[in-house]
Specification:
By secondary structure, the protein is mainly β. The protein has one helix and 14 strands. Strands 8, 9, 10, 11, 12, 13 and 14 form a seven-stranded antiparallel sheet that branches. A five-stranded parallel sheet has the order 1-3-5-6-7. Strands 2-4 form a two-stranded parallel ribbon. α1 links the parallel β6 and β7. The longest helix has 6 residues. The radius of gyration is 17 Å and the shape is globular.
Length: 194
């Protein structure tokens, strides 16, 4: 398995060694707030895992082998604003050395949560039409996912620095916007359409 994994919001338990030994899993793991427990060895040996995004202020239950052989110094753990101390004190989550906050921006039509404080993606709402502009340096592609991990919109924008997303046909709800850049960097925004 390679790429990114978005666990659906309906999942409460992620089983025993479900991705055990997937050293090719080199993407981002998105854990919804519905998930209570990640099983024994669930991501053991996923040595390429770069980022874990968790939307719950309460850390899911894990054990000593859930993320065994994941580089906890390099893998970024992204948690809701204000919950870094909770994760730094939670058993086994406290082994991650790079824990950062989701940062939130609100507007009358949409709410955007930047999943990575290093800030490659910038999103601006166009109030006159139902669209948003995403700005960044040398965007390779923009992909919008629903909470089930299904691709809703895809834009390949070879070298462009601005992509206009038409959100007029999106239903109200939460979406994950993934930006991929020519330098290999990947960044996520969570977007709520009202």
């Amino acid at each position: 398995f390679s790429g990114d994994l978005i666990i659906p919001n309906s999942i409460r338990y992620f089983g025993y060694q479900v991705f055990y030994g997937c050293s090719g899993f080199d993407g981002i793991l998105n854990i919804p707030n519905s998930l209570d427990t990640l099983g024994h060895g669930a991501f053991e040996g996923c040595s390429g895992l770069r980022q874990i995004i968790i939307t719950d202020t309460t850390p899911p239950i894990i054990d000593e082998s859930t993320f065994n052989n994941v580089n906890k110094s390099l893998c970024q753990l992204v948690v809701p604003s204000g919950s870094i101390p909770v994760y730094k004190n939670a058993a086994y989550w406290n082994e991650f050395k790079n824990i950062t906050n989701l940062s939130t921006v609100n507007s009358p039509q949409i709410s955007i949560n930047n999943m990575n404080e290093t800030g490659f993606l910038r999103l601006f709402q166009n109030h006159s039409v139902k669209s948003v502009n995403i700005e960044a340096e040398k965007i390779r592609s923009i992909v919008v996912y629903n909470l089930l991990g299904i691709v809703i919109l895809r834009y390949n924008s070879i070298g462009r620095e601005c992509v206009n997303l038409n959100i007029a046909n999106l239903k109200s709800g939460n979406y994950l916007v993934k930006g991929t850049f020519f330098n290999g960097a990947v960044n996520f925004l969570r977007m709520t359409v009202f």
